[in-house]
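Dear all,

This email documents one entry for the complex benchmark we are building for the journal club exercise. For each entry we list the sequence lines for every component of the assembly. Then comes the predicted three-dimensional structure of the complex as a C-alpha cell string, followed by one or two observations. Please use this as the template for your own entries, and keep the labels exactly as they appear.
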Amino acid sequence: MATRQIAADSMLDVERTLWDRIVYAGRFLWRDRSGTVGLVMFLVVVFAAVFAPLIAPYDPLGQDLRAAKMPPAWSAEGSWAHPLGTDNLGRDLFSRLIYGARVSLTVGFVGVLIAAGLGMVFGAIAGYGGGRVDTFIMAVVNLVLSLPYLLFVVVIASMLGRSLINVILIFGITDAPIFARVTRGEVLRMRESGYVESAISAGAGTGRIIFDHIMPNLIGPLLTLATFEMSRMIFYEAGLGFLGLSVPPSVPSWGNMLDAGRKYLTSYPWIALWPGLAIMWTSLGMNLLGDWLRDVLDPRLRRSRK
Amino acid sequence: MQRYFLTRVGQSLLLLIGVLVLVFFLVRITGDPARLMMPREASAAAVEAFREEMGFNRPLLVQFGDYFLGVLQGDFGRSLHFKSPALDLVLQRLPATVHLAATAILFAMLVGVPLGLVGGFNPGSAVDSVGRLLALLGQSIPNFWLGLLLMLLFAVRLGLLPSFGRDEWRSVILPAFVLGLPTMGQLVRLTRSAVLEVRGEDFIRTAHSKGLEPGIIYTKHVLRNVAIPLVSVIGVQFGYMLGGSIIIETVFAWPGIGQLLEQAIGWRDYPLVMAIAVFTSLAVLTINLLTDVAYAVIDPRIRYGH
C-alpha cells in the first residue's frame, strides 16, 4: 500500500498529504508580500479577540461618567489612561474595540462555518445526484442569489430581534447558496474530468471517490470563498449594527460602536472613527489573504498574475 | 435567440413566484404576524382584533392565494402607518433611489473602467498600482463609515457640500461616491483581468503577426471582448445598489426606498416592508433579465451555446 502510494505520488502528483500542501502554500506565501501582510493583519485581530481580557485595560462595559467623551491620548485634553479616548458613557474605547473583535470574528467564523457546511452538503447532493434533486436545489439557490441580499438580511434581522445567535444564523443560512453553487460546479467539473472517471473504472466506490478524490480538490476553491465571505459577513454585521439591528446594544461590537458614535459625530468624532478603522483593517487583511489564497490554490489563475 | 429569450423570461417569472412565497412566509417566521406588526404594549384584545381585521386567522393557503392574486393585480398591500396603498409610497420614493444608484454606477464606470484598462495594458505601471490599491480599498473600507467621515469633513467642517437630504444637485455627490466605491473597485479588477486575459489569446497574437496596427487590435479585438463581462457585472451591480443603498440612504437622509425601509421597520409597518422587498426584488429580477438579453445580443456564444 505504502509503496503504491509513493509511486502514485511521484508519477501523478495528485495525492499529496495535507502537510505537503501546507508547506507548499507556505512557500508561496513567503514569495507574495501582500499575502503575508494580509495574514499578519488578520492574525492581529485573532490575537486581540482571543486574548481580549488580557489586553484590554478596562472592562468594556464599565462606565465612568466623570471620564466621558475624553479624546484620544495625543490630543490636548486626552490622557494615556484612555489611549483611544472614551465614549459618551465614559467607557474605554480601546477596550471596547478589542472586545469588538470577538463579536465580529465569532459572527464571521461561525457564520461561514454554517454557510459552508450547508452549502457543501446541498451542493454535493445537487452535483452528484443530478436530475430533479439538482433542479430543485439549484432553483432555490438561484432564487436566493438573485435577491437583493442586504435588503433581505435587514428585513429578517428586524423581525427576529437582536441576538448574537440570530445574527449568526441569518448570515449562515442566507450565505449558504453561494457555497452550494461553487461546490456543485466543482463536483460537476470533476465528474467530467479524466481522473474521477479512471477512479471509477479502477473500481473505486462512491464514498471513496467523494472523500479521496473530490473533497481534497474542493478545499481550495471553498477556502478562498470562505475568506471573502467571512470578510463580507464582518462588513455586513457592522452595517446591521449601524442600523441598530445586530447584537443587543449592551454588547461591545464594532457595529454598535459605530451606531453610538454616529450620534456624536460632529462634537466627538473619534467615537465613530475607531470601529470603522477596525473593520477596514480586518477586511483589508482578509481580502489580501483571500487574493493570495486564490492565486495559490487555483493554479489556473497563477499564470495570469504579474 | 427567441428561444433563449423566452426561457429567460419564464425563469424570471418562476423566480418572482419564489420571491412572493419567500416574503409571504418570512413575515410569518416568528409565528404570529399580528404580534409582529402591533406595538409591543398592545393588549391581547387589540392584537386579536387586528388579526381578525388583517385576516391572519384564515388558513395559510387562503391568505397566500389572496396575497398572490393581489400582487398580480398591482395590489402590494396597505401601509399600516400611512393608511394608504404601499405600492404608491414605494413609487414615490423610486426616483430618488434610481437617481442615487445611477449616479453611483456612472461614477464607478467612469473611474473604474479606464483605470482597469490602463492597468491591463500596462501591468506593473504606476497607474496600475494606483488602480489596484483603489480597488482593494474600495472593497475593504466600510462605505457607510466613510460616508460619515466625508460628511463630517465636506459638510460640517468645510461647508462645501450639503450633509443630508436631496434639495440641490450637489446633494448626490457624497452618497453616490460612497455607494459607488465598492463597485468601482470591482470594475477595476474585472476590467484589468479581462484585458490581461484577452491579450494572451491566440487570435490577438495572430492579429499582431499578420501586421495589424496595434490601435486597431486594441479597439476592435481587445475592447470588444472586454466589454462582454463588464455588461453583466454593471447590470448586477445596479441591482445590488437598488437593494443595498439602505445604509447609505440612512446615513445621508436620502429620501429613497432604502430610507423608507428603515422607517417602515421602525414603525413595524410590515405590509410596507413586504411591498418594498417584493418591489425591489422585481426590479432586480428585471434588470438581471435585461442584462442577460443584452449579453446574448453582444455575445453570439451565449445564443448558440444553450
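Observations: Residues 45 and 138 of chain A are 36 Å apart (CA to CA). Chain A has a mean pLDDT of 83.
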